Amino acid sequence: GGDEGGDGGGDEVDRVPWKEGGAGSGVSLSAQLVNMLPENAALDAAAATLAAGWHAMEDPAAKVLMVVQPEERNVFDQRWIAARLWEAHGVRTVRATLREIHDGATVGGATVGGVGGGGGGEPGVVANALEYGGDTFSVVYFRAGYTPGDYPSEAEWRARELLERSAAVKSPSAAMHLAGTKKVQQVLAAPGVLERFVPAAQDAADMRRVFAGLYALDGENAATAVAQGLADPEGFVLKPQREGGGNNLYGEELTAALQTFDPAAAPGAPGDLSAYILMQRILPPLTHTLCLRAGQVAALETVSELGVYTGYLRIGEQVVMNRGAGHLLRTKAATSDEGGVAAGFAVLDSPQLY
Fold first, then answer.
1. Of the candidates 13, 12, 16, which has an alpha carbon nearest to the alpha carbon of residue 309?
2. pLDDT-based confidence at 21, cuts 50/70/90?
3. Would you say 170 is a known binding-site residue?
4. Which of 15, 99, 108, 347 is 20 to 30 Å apart from 114, CA to CA?
């Protein structure tokens, strides 16, 4: 890990929180079209939201712990957020991998696997305070921990457990992380489920009008969903619980996977597809685009995906912040099924306003 910000740190520079948000902000600085591009404050908003969590914990000596992958490639976007946290809010950031946290972090004086909880009831002492490398941390910002590859051993799982047990604000917590999975999205789309969380009938109806079809591949309706996918493989995509691009199955790969379906298969056994959901494929309009890569200009038909960030902070049952926090537009060739920027399938872009 390394300390970022201030006169003792290294070089300065989402959910994944604000993943690529810092890099996306810079695209709106195009000199020729600047008046036609919307403002994008994703970088400032990311730092402001993390700083709000830091302020809420009322420990001016604490820092933000950014959890990163070993040999991280997507480092510049992360360092921009750390730099903005220091420059705008005076908050320092330390980077560490899950393995480093396992080896060196404690909660309430207990090492990983121990019994935490020291310090409760003493004035000025936070119960379950997170400490690492001689520093105390009031916010944990996860830029790793989203894929199975981030947990190659039990040590990484123990580190994640330690962070969850700590009093630090987590971005995101395990509960919020799970709430954003494909499976939860599919369950929310089931009849009557969304309405439990959106009691205003008209609001729920408006939201459902923009839902794509989402279908479970376990339970009593799984066989019907599989039949739908096999009948129209180009109209659906098979999605696992993964982030980062390169994981979805389309066309022939989708068909091959669905043909293995066995409703009697045990969980995790061949024929069990419960780790996937079947989603109606979204077919966005095509745009004629000039793309520049490695000094070469190419005229391509492209499609774009617009993501809108939200800065959300909740302490206990109190919602401290819930506001818009910029956007990210990713553009890719229409012939590409996947769309991750870091994975090499798409590029950062900006909407053009008329």
1. 16
2. low
3. no
4. 15
| Statement: residue 180 has pLDDT above 50 | yes
Please indicate if the annotation marks 305 as binding a ligand.
Answer: yes
The reply, when asked if residue 332 is annotated as ligand binding, is yes
Residue 243 marked ligand-binding:
yes
Per-residue model confidence as pLDDT tens digits over 185-210: 999 999 999 999 998 999 999 999 99
- Does residue 246 have a known ligand-binding role? yes
233 in a known ligand binding site: no
Task: Find out whether 244 is annotated in a ligand binding site.
Answer: yes
- CA distances to 65, 105, 123, 158, 343 from 126, rounded to whole Å, are 17, 16, 8, 22, 40
Q: Does 81 count as an annotated binding residue?
A: no
User: Is 32 assigned a ligand-binding role in the annotation?
Assistant: no
Mean pLDDT of 235-244: 88
Query: Does the annotation place 245 within a ligand binding site?
Result: yes
Alpha-carbon distance of 173 to 145, in angstroms, equals 11
Domains of the chain (ranges; CATH) run 2-173 (3.40.50.1760), 182-280 (3.30.1490.50), 287-349 (3.30.470.20)
Task: Tell me the β-bridge partners of 210.
Answer: none
Is 277 marked as binding a ligand? no
Say whether 279 counts as a known binding-site residue: yes
Can you give the pTM of this predicted structure?
Answer: 0.81
Is the pLDDT reported for residue 44 higher than 50?
yes
Q: Is 168 in contact with 65 (CB distance < 8 Å)?
A: yes
Comparing 180 with 140, which gets the higher pLDDT? 140
Q: How large is the average pLDDT for residues 177-181? A: 89
Across the chain, mean pLDDT equals 86
Residue 182, H or E segment: helix 182-189
| 247 annotated to bind ligand | yes
Q: Is 348 exposed, middle or buried (0-12, 13-18, 19+ CB in 10 A)?
A: middle
The reply, when asked if residue 330 is annotated as ligand binding, is yes
| 312 assigned binding-site residue | no
State percent of the chain over pLDDT 90. Answer: 62
- CA distances from residue 333 to 58, 239, 296, 343 in whole angstroms, order as listed: 47, 20, 15, 14
Does 183 show up as a binding residue in the annotation?
no
